[in-house]
């Protein structure tokens, strides 16, 4: 037990490194929640399906990131074939097959523990050819296997990306403009 405590203390004193790399695990995921005038819906990308690397550096207490992830729009599953097809069409999947998230900063990370800690960060999201910068709320923690869990959430709108929400049956079913996006990144420091 003593050695385990020394290991954790050493890890916390070294966290975050001045420069380094993070590997994003392929089991990371993203979920979009929305509403229509009739019901609620959830569309998921249940698994990122690849690994990517983010470069990190510490500056003035903040973590600066460089790197991005590219999510396949075709991977969205709304658990309803028609709704999935409508979302992919709305996001212009044939013209823009990837949704990009470029990570820029994480503010106030400090020491990582098993208990989630609230932090903020900046990202650029590129969707349907339009790039927008967003401040994202995160919960960050580290598990017993030293996997960093970064859970992010952000309210966005279709109109942020010059997209018109899907409509069906001559406009009788209307999707609301606002969406709640959540993602769970599983990261290893290397």
UniProtKB/TrEMBL annotation:
Gene3D superfamilies linked: Lipid/polyisoprenoid-binding, YceI-like
Stored InterPro entries: TTHA0802/YceI-like_sf (IPR036761)
Annotated protein name in UniProt: YceI family protein
Natural source organism: Mucilaginibacter antarcticus
